Amino acid sequence: MHGAAAVEDRVFRALADPSRRAIFESLTRGEAAVKDLTARFDISQPAISQHLAALKDAGLVRHRREGRCAFYRVDPRGMKPLIDWIAHYRAFWTKHIGRLERLLEGLDE
Amino acid sequence: MHGAAAVEDRVFRALADPSRRAIFESLTRGEAAVKDLTARFDISQPAISQHLAALKDAGLVRHRREGRCAFYRVDPRGMKPLIDWIAHYRAFWTKHIGRLERLLEGLDE
DNA sequence: CAAACATATAAGCCCTTACTTATTTATCGT
DNA sequence: ACGATAAATAAGTAAGGGCTTATATGTTTG
Predict the structure, then answer these.
(1) B6 shares contact with chain A (CB less than 8 Å)
(2) Where are chain A's structural domains?
(3) CATH 3.40.190.10 corresponds to the domain B2-108
(4) Contact call for B12 and A15, based on CB within 8 A
């Protein structure tokens, strides 16, 4: 519970940076090597590696080594802290704006 | 479309700070004046006001003035950018871990 | 009106962070 | 083995963020 809060913290901090969100989004389209991401974005390779390390530390991403390439992919379980945090306020939402779930229903379309 | 991204950015940045999340959580328990929040937390009144300004700028919070008191309350609509961002990856989730919606179903219990 | 109160803003400080270039480590192809 | 490629790490820098104290603005009370 103290460790869980730390994970929550890392997730929120990791997603706070727009470059990191863009990299994360790019990875949802499929596994990618660092060199691919370096080609896609306008920042240096070390910057990419540092962002990936932050995402990995938050549990949002996993990596696999194959030869001299390092492939990164999204770990969907990493989103759980975020989902949990949102769910925590559901009671509040329903009390105040009724069926905010309509927003969430988009998730079931 | 440039404005929407800017809002998303402000929301993620606002929630990145644990003090701000704590203040937000405190506000979900009910409207509160700045002095109440100042009493609840161990940071100065200006720090509270600055956090509230960030939350307000992100659209997560609204404020109402009554005499010399400023009451802040959560604006649930401010969560929409966050929900939308999560929903954006739903297709990916279902492909990779099947019914992650179970996590989200907690929102409908 | 004056003093106390509630909040916002200003200015400054320190720590964090996101980036860069340079270097290291490891792996592949020739 | 050598040179090229892929990624991680190191070190330094510049900007941003969160906090503080001090001050300004507006409001209630005596």
Answers:
(1) no
(2) 2-108
(3) no
(4) yes
